[in-house]
């Protein structure tokens, strides 16, 4: 979010001057030194949030599918119109599936699924598989 602040200072002493009563022909003298010379400043403050993420897969030689997949990364929720953190763990050796989606700003959990991987069917590409 961008914040701006307009400041009027006295050139001689740096005192902040209330120029609300100034006109084109009259400038209010500085209360500290009496000067009518002005310095006009605009301060701009911008907040920046840096987000990072990661993904990893464990594969064995000769096997197509990884035995282990894990990721934690930022994602955009179109329904909520905000950034969310998406975490997923797929552990084929231990038959484990975990997915958690939380809001970055509040850490509120908006989706949580933890179940055996063998029971996690009918999701993603598996929705289109016909038996």
The radius of gyration over CA amounts to 29 Å
Q: Uncertain runs with pLDDT below 50, 5 residues or more?
A: none
Estimated structural class: mainly beta
Q: Assign a percent range to the helix content.
A: under 10%
How many helices? The count is 0
Order of helices and strands: EEEEEEE
Roughly what is the average pLDDT, rounded to an integer?
Answer: 89
| Percent of residues in β-strands | 35-45%
β-strand number: 7
Largest sheet: 5 strands, antiparallel
State the strand order across the main sheet.
Answer: 3-4-5-6-7
Shape: rod-shaped
Structural summary, described in words:
- With 131 residues, this protein is mainly beta.
- The protein folds into 2 domains: 2-46, no CATH class; 54-128, no CATH class.
- 0% of the residues lie in helices and 44% in strands.
- The chain has no helices and 7 strands.
- A 5-stranded antiparallel β-sheet has the order 3-4-5-6-7, with no helix packed on it. Strands 1-2 form a two-stranded antiparallel sheet.
- The mean pLDDT is 89.
Please describe the topology of this protein.
Blueprint lengths: L1 E9 L27 E9 L7 E5 L9 E10 L4 E10 L4 E8 L5 E7 L16
Antiparallel strand pairs: 1-2, 3-4, 4-5, 5-6, 6-7
List keywords for this structure.
single chain; mainly beta; 131 residues; 2 domains; two-stranded antiparallel ribbon
Give a summary of the structure in a few sentences.
This protein has 131 residues and is an all-beta fold. It folds into two domains: 2-46, no CATH class; 54-128, no CATH class. Helices cover 0% and strands 44% of the residues.
